[in-house]
Amino acid sequence: MGWSTRQLAELTGTTLRAVRHYHEVGLLEEPERRANGYKQYGVTHLVRVLRIKRLTDLGFSLAQIQDMGDADDHPEQALRTLDAELAETIERLQRARVELALILNQSTPTDLPPELGQVARTVELSEADRAFTVVMSRVLGTQSLQAYADMLREVPKHPSFTEFDDLPADADESTRQDLAARMAEPSRALRASHPVPDLGTDSPLGRKRAGETMGTAMRELYNRAQIDVLIRLEAEIKKLEA
User: Fold this and answer.
1) CB–CB of 12/50 below 8 Å?
2) Taking the model in full, what pTM does it have?
3) Taking the domains of the chain in order of start, what are their residue ranges?
4) Where is this region: Disordered (predicted)?
5) What's the rounded Cα separation, in Å, for the pair 26 and 15?
């Protein structure tokens, strides 16, 4: 006497869908069929599904189980690999819990790491600056991220910075040049007191990709007049430092 697909699923604590999927991916051989056309599973199938269930409960993927085959009932290397993967997962989840505790206790945003989340809660940022800060959280490495957060905390409430946030895309050249000139000194002083390390030193993306990502973000978040002001600002700062 054998078992139907439903009975096999019930015996093994799995689902009809799972059993059918095991067939589809080649983990479980097709059984013989009864005279009425229904599948009839035997003990071999039962043992196989129980083994698959046991291994998936431990954390193995179906692809990993397939690689193991049936010969080795103690796949030491696979077990050690899985153990290392689980250790990394546990560490990641522990870090996530620490961050969640900070978010809950300090009411910080969920889309930023703790360093920048605390800043975003206390510093008034324009919509574009806020979005750019999210991008920077990915571009910067640990050291640079902390330096960037420290810099944001000390951004002076200078009228020119507010004017920059409100600058229309059709601002004329004299307005853009005048704004860049007035932003130069407070910007230079801020950089001098809070230098951000070179992107190439610790960016997880590398210098090239980090620069490209920042450039793309700036072009999409700021209008053409603001971009022009930023270019002019660099020239004005160099004049002050000369």
Assistant:
1) yes
2) 0.59
3) 5-71, 123-241
4) 159-209
5) 17
